[in-house]
Automatic annotation (TrEMBL):
UniProt-listed Gene3D superfamilies: 30s Ribosomal Protein S14, Chain N, Phosphatidylinositol 3-kinase Catalytic Subunit, Chain A, domain 1
Residue spans of biased composition, Gly residues class: 123-133
Species: Effrenium voratum
Name of this chain's protein: Ubiquitin-like domain-containing protein
Stretches assigned to the Ubiquitin-like domain: 33-102
Any single biological process term in GO: cytoplasmic translation
Compositional bias ranges of the Polar residues kind: 1-11
Residues in coiled coil: none
Region (Disordered): 1-22, 123-165
Annotated GO CC locations: cytosolic small ribosomal subunit
Amino acid sequence: MRTSLGSQPTIRSHPATPDLPSSMALVEQMAELSLEPKAVQTRLVQFKVSGLEAFQLELDAESRVRDVKKLANEECNIEPEHMRLIYNSRQLKDWDTLECYDPKADIPVQILFTAGHTELLGGVGGTGGGPRQGHGSKPQKNPFSGPVRGLPGSKGLRSSRVSGRPGGMALIRKYGIMMKRQEFREKAEEIGFVKYR
């Protein structure tokens, strides 16, 4: 649209000529659609967590495993990110659906707890019996490649060179002996620990 000083603006209009065959087909398709919700096929799915009783949830066959994990969280107190679902010796991925579940087969969906790497850290904590984090220490990033002499700047939380656990109770911690250091030194030869130097 251009205007000059003394002229009126020119407006171009495009004639609205709908393509009749395609618009009629669209109207017919719209008439076939209904606003009524589809009947969802639900089924009782049986779940089993080791150490707990089996439980059932009523779920539709098209529900995704990631949604099922959120619903199962209320029953078994396992967070969805730590949950693995196994059905018929096959691990169900988050994007899978429950269409593979056969209620007549009487095989439950097994729920397994998978710990993250921070849950795999063992031990009782620092040498004072307190928590492992704190006092300016940084959390260890990878538990499988620990530092040789402990985390930097944390003298009290230095890990043992023998057992890799925090504190200086080396053999006592390594072998799970429930006695204090002095008791261990007194009974070491009876137990079978002998110095070779």
